[in-house]
Write a structure and sequence with these properties.
The complex is a heterotetramer, with two copies of chain A (about 350 residues), one copy of chain B (about 500 residues) and one copy of chain C (about 300 residues). In chain A, the strands form three sheets. Chain A has a two-stranded antiparallel ribbon with strand order 1-2. Chain A contains 13 helices and six strands. With about 350 residues, chain A is mainly α. By secondary structure, chain B is α/β, with parallel strands linked by helices. Chain B has three domains: about 230 residues, P-loop containing nucleotide triphosphate hydrolases (Rossmann fold, 3-Layer(aba) Sandwich); about 180 residues, P-loop containing nucleotide triphosphate hydrolases (Rossmann fold), CATH 3.40.50; about 80 residues, no CATH class. In chain B, helix 15 links the parallel strand 19 and strand 20. Chain C is α/β, with parallel strands linked by helices. Chain C is about 40% helix and about 20% strand. Chain C has a six-stranded parallel beta sheet, with helices on both faces. A six-stranded mixed beta sheet of chain C has the order 7-6-8-9-10-12, sandwiched between helices. Chain C starts with 20 loop residues before the first strand and ends in a 5-residue tail after the last helix. The interface between B and D is large, with 67 and 42 residues. Bound molecules: adenosine-5'-triphosphate (2 copies) and magnesium ion (2 copies). The site of one adenosine-5'-triphosphate (ATP) has 22 residues of chain B, from strand 2, helix 1 and helix 14.
């Protein structure tokens, strides 16, 4: 079987328009394409709207818009970085039509692991990080394997995984948070680990930078790899994917492994930021992460969505939390307002012209 | 024809629960031949080729490729062995682009390991062009018409450069122009030594394209014929086990009064939806007891017109007048349409017609539940009786009414959709490609049924891409071009040429 | 420069009467009645101080969220921070950040590490557990007996300390056996279902030691359903002066005793007044609030004394 | 208009079997049918397995199997009754392919409402119950309307609803539980309300009876009404359902209204059982309820599942909690064991012979 001939374009049958050098530019590009392109960035609509509203309603002190102050913006990104990183992994899972409820518990497990390995077992940063990431990945991959091989719905598998991870974390830590002290002595973690709670140039918090980097990386992966196509295909039409020779099981397992890996990474960051690994860390983060993904326009049915949307969704939630707090809205009212804004942001997604 | 066959299947058998789908079937495929596979709905054609293409992996019998026995673990193995398949049901990923779909699972890579998107698009466009489809490979498959999706499927199979190409009803969703282009392609492939298995229920096609025909009946081998010499009756006799009398009834009644009247119907979509041709000036009438055909090229807007008449079209502003029985008609949704006695058999049976995982019985009664309930409670006995009646009336082949609709053969699924809509006892029946994938015997039964319904006073509006079907079945043919009525041809003056000329817009010079 | 928020604005320098002060109250979790009462105590006490405005944030039991809450307070330029930390270590850094910017910090209930705060006010869970244990050893079960423990959320410090203190307290009476311990995660309904099962496994128990009042009440309901509410004695901890609190439960005879875990809310506002209004420099660094044992004898009186709503 | 001719049977082509009177009885009924019938009750497999294991590992006292003692079994049903009632409503929602995350919060809102209306507003039982049920139904219907009309994914709408309901409940109650005292005086609830925490004949707890009654009722509805067919149809293929004349929107809204109604009912029971309505009641119940539904074999994709399965799923979870507590298993180990059993129970569902 010879590969399809790449020069075949020049051999186009007679009767077609005159030859050209870059056929891809000559493809019909009509009004629809423009509209499509505009709505491609629809997941940003909600973010932009909330951003503008936040500027408008932000309290002003000494003539400075508090919301827009660089420190505040950095805080927002830092505050959403863990949820954001988890949401990146969750995006892959949701794209294949699954869900991962275990991420918050895996974060807790990883936080405990980081603290325990460094403080109690006296390991260095690199082995600690590697082991913890490995644990997260293996945990995710195991869940993925159960989903892919036995065919149990991922909701159930990861709900069980949530309980199991939480239980393991509590047993490992003896139930209490493991505080991280820095220094060279025994029972002390390497100073460098505390960089996770620092900032670059005193402006950009390290977790925020990590989130942005991972987000952009995942965005590129989702744009340009065959793996990403397989992910979309499985979520869109599993049978078609299988018939086309997509390694469905392997992709599924990989996707859950990625989610576990990123949850573990978020757990390491969590431990670094809070100087402690506590087994109860990350409770409920799964819902926030899923919310970020879905607000970003990814369908829970799988097969459609974008990483850019997820990043926008996470930032939107962060801005929302921030501006409500800056305005000293009562915590209970905040809950109600947040509910309404989330629905409104999701409704903005619906302006899109629909296919079928 | 070369001596040694590319593929030899011997003693193939396959059982699904209580159904023997294939029984001791031998089949050979030689290089450079077009081998037709014939049989009624449910005869086992798709099952046989699913076995050959690695979709079904547990079966009896042996398969040899190039004389060597093979055992495929999955579709990919078959593809590696040079066997490409266009499956009967469209299996594409709606959320991916045309190019991505065509190269799914074997994406060309760049040196960096990413997907070579440009190359993918270029090659996709090229394969589509050989089929005469000028589609932007970046378009999402979900936005394509069924026919266009079919072309994408074909393009994908072509792009595999296989030595054996299996086509399971590739033309079911295509209009004549596309079919002709496909045949050109098939002839080229044949010249290049590709062995082709061709499944179709359109007898006329076989006479044009097939070199050899194997006929299956009830899962077993019924015989092999040369379709160019054998008479149609002979073939049908083999397929059905009896002769099918005059396919198309003659001597129609006089049509009655006007039931549906449409004047200058147009829909201005609220949002632009690429790929849809909304009605843009449709005039037509359908009388009681009359069968009116809708003709047009792919994308002429037949489907959209029927959807609009059923209240299921895209959102938008409707203009023009519609009346039923002289009273204004403008359904807000399918429910409203059904309430006015309008029923619709959609063209995409899997996407829009059936709950595939649900039982045949549940599917059949869904639209007519209101007549089968007392105080909201379903009368089981009545349901069972009604379902049995309908399945028998339409000769649906199903192991039992309790099996999932997905397990039925394609043609039988179509009949289930049909049965569901007939149960609503409509006065106006809208049919979109109602015989797609239906075997010739069942087709005859459907035609007879339509005649009987029309004779009983039902008005029928039927869109079809099979011109012979329209010509023989309809009292009048309305031709659409870009969403407009361009001709209304009474039976006497409706000829293949006249319809094609109108469909191409020849009497509408300004649009050319 | 005006822009950088703290610009040498030592809060103490701005103190004085007749001014407006914004106090940020960072609460770990509003969903716990004890903490809700703490918020209410802070808010109510602040109403009596002219110029005080309190804003309350709820971290919903998430350390990270609480860090963000404090940061948002700093962005807003609060004049004083009251924080009831979800956990000590994770909040140490952000509390220090506030303190270093010149914001006085009063830490309630649970300490942060180091000494980068102005004052700590809190109860002592070990001591309370111990008081409860001693009550069991001497008053409730002097003859000894079988006790089941219903504990708080595993992994929370108060649960661990109330368990530890209790064991220290009952140690003096070796006749007392702790026959089972199950968590009900601070929740009333879990207390009920856990008690259901424990009653089945240990039908002959004499008393239930619950780490808080709601769980004790839940256990009481389970015993009542089994017809054993009069043969088993129940005690709780917290003694919140609200209608749904433990004091009322003691007064109405469902619980035998409860032990006050003071919120420190009023005390915190008193101290804030000293710092902001009275410009007092030397507030005590640590104030440990004692516990009060509440039994039927003093329940009504304590309820009024603590300002409980009727 | 004559209906399709029923006499067509007689016109069946020659070669088909001779005519018959009761065609449905003549369908092939072989070994496969037996197997099918056996697996129809598959959702019970997990329940039976867990039940048997529970008997085996239950502590025994005075020769009596504690697990099997009637009091204990009654307690189990009582303990799952609220989750069970919520899960019944959730089953409808999941069958149409949706999800309702707001149920736990609605339970809290209803509990607060019951207590407040009776104690603070001095209402009688009937008006209180009616108003609270109305609130729950309206809340659910509103969510359903947003899902059905705007087309936002129910996950997002009900996640927002969760927050809103929680916020409203906290505001209504001032953040604290509202205790219910019984009596005739002001600020006292009618004695009859306390029946909810009682038992019938001292054996059958009232909430358990309510759960069983509602479960059986829902089971019958789902078996035999046109509404149920519509529910299944929408979950199976929404487009086909719409084209078949199913009133998709109305069914959707109704389904969410039912879920809200039953969550409110569970809230009333909750308040009655605990003699208190607290705004934080019911946190996390949504996950338990979903778990019960999914363990019972209902697919989160919609369109397939049964009410019997849900009831079995709820009982399974209750037995699991009970037997772990009876054996005084460490809380952390409990979490891990629970996770494993849930996966195992779901795996039992997969034994079903599959249609390719
Ligand atoms: N962008 C789109 N969005 C939604 N539905 C679409 C879109 N494009 C096509 N369709 C659907 O595809 C079908 C029309 O495509 P089809 O292949 O049937 O065309 P056709 O039947 O050959 O031509 P005609 O328009 O004349 O019926 C309809 O069901 C239509 O609703
Ligand atoms: N997955 C399955 N499970 C159960 N029965 C099946 C399954 N697939 C096919 N069958 C049955 O096997 C028989 C042969 O089906 P098949 O799809 O091969 O027919 P076909 O010849 O392709 O018909 P058509 O012309 O309608 O496409 C039918 O009776 C069908 O109901
Ligand atoms: Mg077929
Ligand atoms: Mg069409």
């Amino acid at each position: 079987m010879t590969p399809p001939n790449p020069t075949a374009v020049e051999e186009a049958p007679a009767g077609t328009p005159p030859p050209r050098r870059r056929p891809s530019l000559r493809l019909p590009r009509d009004r629809h394409a423009l509209v499509d392109n505009f709505f491609r960035f629809q997941s940003l609509f909600g973010l932009v709207a909330v951003f503008l509203i936040a500027i408008a309603v932000s309290p002003v002190r000494n003539g400075e818009n508090i919301f827009l102050s660089s420190g505040n913006l950095a805080n927002i990104v830092r505050a959403v970085s863990e949820i954001g990183i988890i949401a990146v992994g969750m995006t892959f899972v949701i794209l294949i039509g699954g869900i991962d409820l275990s991420v918050g518990a895996v974060l807790g497990l990883a936080a405990v692991g980081s603290a325990t390995l460094m403080v109690d077992s006296g390991m260095g940063i690199l082995p600690t990080v590697l082991i913890v990431l490995l644990i997260g990945t293996a945990f995710g991959a195991t869940q993925g394997a159960i989903v892919a091989r036995i065919g149990i719905q991922s909701f159930i598998v990861t709900l069980a995984g949530l309980q199991a991870a939480r239980g393991i974390a509590r047993m490992w830590s003896g139930g209490l948070g493991v505080p991280i002290a820095y220094g060279d002595g025994p029972k002390e973690a390497p100073e460098a680990f505390s960089l996770l709670s620092g900032s670059i140039n005193g402006v950009l918090p390290v977790p925020a930078v990590l989130f942005i980097a991972i987000g952009i990386g995942a965005l590129l992966v989702l744009r340009s790899t065959a793996f990403a196509r397989h992910v979309y295909a499985i979520g869109g039409n599993e049978k078609a994917a299988r018939l086309s020779g997509v390694p469905v099981r392997r992709v599924r397992i990989t996707v859950f492994a990625i989610s576990g890996l990123l949850a573990a990474l978020a757990g390491i960051i969590h431990a670094g930021q809070l100087n402690q690994g506590s087994p109860n860390d990350g409770s409920g983060y799964e819902l926030d992460a899923i919310a970020a993904v879905v607000i970003g326009g990814t369908s829970l049915a799988g097969g459609s969505g974008s990483m850019g949307g997820t990043i926008a969704g996470a930032l939107l939630l962060g801005i929302l939390n921030n501006i409500l707090a800056l305005n000293n809205i009562d915590a209970n009212v905040q809950l109600v307002v947040k509910g309404l804004v989330i629905v409104a942001a999701a409704a903005l997604q619906k302006l899109r012209p629909r296919i079928s | 024809m070369t001596e040694r066959p590319l593929v030899r299947m011997t003693g193939i058998g396959k059982r699904f629960g209580g159904v023997q789908a294939c029984r001791d079937i031998d089949l050979t495929i030689a290089a450079g031949e077009v081998h037709a596979l014939l049989g009624e709905n449910g005869a086992g054609k798709s099952t046989l080729i699913n076995i050959l293409s690695g979709v079904i992996t547990d079966y009896d019998g042996t398969i040899e490729v190039d004389g060597r026995p093979v055992s495929f673990g999955g579709p990919v193995d078959a593809q590696r062995a040079g066997i490409a398949t266009i499956h009967q049901e469209l299996d594409l990923v709606a959320g991916l682009s045309i190019a991505e779909n065509m190269f799914l699972g074997r994406e060309p890579r760049t040196r960096l390991g990413g997907v070579d998107i440009r190359r993918m698009r270029r090659q996709a466009a090229e394969h589509l062009r050989t089929l005469g489809a000028d589609l932007d490979p970046r378009r999402l498959v979900g936005s394509l018409r069924v026919g266009e999706q079919q072309l994408v499927e074909i393009g994908r199979a072509l792009s595999l450069d296989a030595r054996v190409l299996i086509m399971d009803e590739p033309t079911a969703a295509l209009a004549d122009a596309e079919v002709e282009r496909l045949f050109e392609t098939i002839k080229e492939l044949r010249r290049a030594g590709v062995g082709i298995v061709y499944i179709s229920h359109r007898m006329a096609e076989l006479e044009v394209i097939a070199d050899r025909a194997t006929v299956l009946r009830n899962g077993g081998l019924a015989g092999t014929v040369d379709p160019r010499t054998a008479s149609r009756d002979e073939i049908i006799q083999l397929m059905v086990g009896r002769s099918v009398d005059a396919l198309f009834g003659e001597g129609r009644n006089e049509p009655g009064k006007v039931l549906l009247d449409v004047r200058n119907l147009a829909v201005t979509p609220r949002r632009p939806t690429p790929g849809r041709t909304e009605p843009a000036g449709v005039d037509l009438t359908v009388r009681t007891g009359e069968i009116v055909g809708l003709a047009g090229l792919m994308g002429a807007g037949r489907t959209e017109l029927l959807e609009t008449l059923f209240g299921a079209g895209g959102s938008g502003r409707r203009s023009g007048q519609m009346t039923i029985d002289g009273r204004p008609y403008g359904p807000h949704g399918p429910r409203a349409a059904l309430a006015r006695g309008v029923a619709f058999v959609p063209e995409d049976r899997r996407g829009a017609g059936l709950m595939l995982e649900h039982s045949v019985a549940e599917n059949v009664v869904l639209s007519a539940l209101a007549t089968l309930t007392t105080l909201g409670v379903v009368r089981r006995q009545a349901v069972r009786r009604t379902v049995a009646e309908q399945l028998t009336a339409l000769a649906v082949k199903a192991a039992s009414p309790a099996v999932a609709a997905a397990t039925l053969s394609g043609g039988n699924q179509q009949k289930v959709v049909f049965a569901k809509q007939l149960l609503t006892q409509p006065r106006l029946l809208l049919l979109d490609e109602p015989t797609r994938g239906v075997d010739i015997g069942a087709k005859a039964e459907i035609y007879r049924l339509l005649h009987r319904l029309a004779d009983a006073g039902m008005a029928i509006l039927l869109a079809s891409s099979e011109l012979p079907e329209l010509l023989s079945l309809c009292d009048r043919v309305v031709v659409l071009h870009r969403g407009r009525t361009v001709a209304t041809l009474p039976r006497a003056s409706a000829t293949q040429q006249a319809i094609l000329a109108a469909a191409n817009g020849d009497d509408a010079k300004e649009t050319r | 420069k005006a822009g950088d928020g703290n610009g040498g604005t030592d809060a103490a320098a701005e103190c004085g009467s007749g001014k407006e002060f914004l106090i940020g109250m960072s609460q770990a979790n509003n969903a716990e009645p004890y903490r809700q009462v703490m918020n209410d105590d802070v808010s109510n006490a602040a109403k009596d101080v002219p110029g005080f405005k309190v804003v309350v944030s709820d971290a919903a039991q998430d350390n990270s969220k609480q860090v963000a809450d404090v940061e948002n307070f700093i962005s807003q330029g609060i004049n004083l921070l009251i924080i009831s930390p979800n956990e000590a270590k994770p909040l140490t850094a952000v509390v220090k950040k506030a303190y270093d910017q010149g914001i006085p910090v009063i830490v309630l209930d649970r300490k942060v590490e180091g000494d980068a705060y102005t004052a700590f006010i809190g109860g002592d869970n070990v001591a309370i557990g111990k008081a409860a244990g001693e009550y069991y050893a001497k008053t409730l079960l002097p003859q000894g007996g079988k006790v089941v423990e219903i504990s708080g959320l595993p992994g929370s410090t108060p649960a661990a300390e109330r368990a530890q203190g209790f064991r220290e307290g009952v140690a003096s009476n070796p006749q007392i056996q702790i026959v089972a311990s199950q968590t009900a995660e601070w929740l009333r309904e879990k207390g009920q279902s856990v008690m259901d099962a424990m009653l089945k496994a240990n039908p002959d128990i004499n008393a239930v030691y619950a780490h808080n009042d709601p769980m004790a009440e839940g256990a009481y309901l389970a015993a009542k359903a089994a017809g054993k509410e009069s043969t088993i004695k129940f005690t709780g901890i917290d003694a919140l002066p609200v209608p749904s609190g433990g004091i009322k439960a003691v007064e109405q005879g469902r619980l035998q005793a409860t032990f006050q875990y003071p919120t420190g809310g009023r005390e915190a506002i008193d101290m804030a007044k000293k710092i902001l209004v009275d410009c007092q420099k030397d507030v005590p660094k640590t104030t440990t609030l004692g516990t009060t044992q509440i039994t039927k004898d003093n329940a009504a009186q304590v309820y009024t004394q603590l300002g409980g709503k009727q």
